Amino acid sequence: MKNVVKMLEPQMDEVVRQFKHDLNSEVPLIRKVGEYVLASGGKRMRPMLVLLTAMLAGYKGDKHIGVASVVEFIHTATLLHDDVVDAAVIRRGAESANRVWGNEASVLVGDFLFAKSFSIMVRAGSLPILQALSDATTKMAEGEVLQLISTCDLDLSEEKYMQVVREKTAVLIAAACLCGGILGGITPEQEQALYDFGLDLGIAFQFMDDALDYVADEAEFGKVCGHDLEEGKMTLPLIETLRHCSAAERTMVEEIIEADEVSPEALESVVALINRYDGIKYTRVRATALVERAKTYLQVFEAGEARDALETVSDYVVSRTH
């Protein structure tokens, strides 16, 4: 993965410069909040995928920089809104923006980023890219609401949860991959392959987040461990565990997940239960299978540096520890 990051470093620097340029506003707080979230790090996977798929598609222009920046704009907006909805206090190992500036500022700056994203896309003049990203943001909003109404639902099925993940997380990653292909003027079959690649990769990415929420070190993972449980989120490790545990164990989980606060002891009890029924292992196996399928979609493109890099990013998704 380090080799891919190094290969893309000059282009990613341009993406960050474009991002900062697009933050221009007469309201200084917008730039402050936007740059704060940008400076907090993150994997920048979505803009990287735009750059790599554009390379895979043989694109030779410079519009991929702006498209990658817009995708990161949209992602940053969702982070600002998510942290408010989740009452998060940590994001990427630092205080979340809503913790620093308050919920109101986070929501409104997120709104600005969404609105500015569409303004930039219209100026770029590509209707297919506008369509791809507008469809993605619509689905993401639906996914957020679907997750909200699924809170504390111990009967949530894996299929229904897959829908939450697909719409909340994976569709933007799929759209990022599709946009790179659109820029290169590839065939409809290849466009579909890139979209399917991104969709499976995005679901796998979220599944790994699900697993890491219960096992990763807080300083390394960048958010409070067990936060999903505290927020009543039904994620794959817990869904798998509830499929196999006893009625008494299910009652214990229900009492913990519906409590106002989850104590460290309660979290340990749930983690122990998840380990007993191989919830983490199951989640990792599901993520690995999705990544392997995702890589098969790339076979419609010629072998080369770009395809190798996309396969490396895919493998990183399931090997990461934060």
Write up what this structure looks like.
The protein is mainly α. The protein has 16 helices and 2 strands. The protein has helices at residues 2-22, 28-39, 45-56, 63-85, 97-101, 103-124, 127-149, 158-183, 188-215, 218-221, 227-230, 236-244, 247-257, 264-276, 279-297, 305-319; strands spanning 90-91, 94-95. Strands 1-2 form a two-stranded antiparallel sheet. A hairpin with a 2-residue loop joins strand 1 (90-91) and strand 2. The radius of gyration is 20 Å and the shape is globular.
Relevant terms:
mainly alpha; Farnesyl Diphosphate Synthase; two-stranded antiparallel ribbon; 2 strands; 77% helix
Which helices and strands occur, and which strands form pairs?
Blueprint: H1 2-22, H2 28-39, H3 45-56, H4 63-85, E1 90-91, E2 94-95, H5 97-101, H6 103-124, H7 127-149, H8 158-183, H9 188-215, H10 218-221, H11 227-230, H12 236-244, H13 247-257, H14 264-276, H15 279-297, H16 305-319
Antiparallel strand pairs: 1-2
Helix pairs in contact: 1-3, 1-4, 2-6, 3-4, 3-8, 3-16, 4-6, 4-7, 4-8, 7-8, 8-9, 9-15, 12-14, 12-15, 15-16
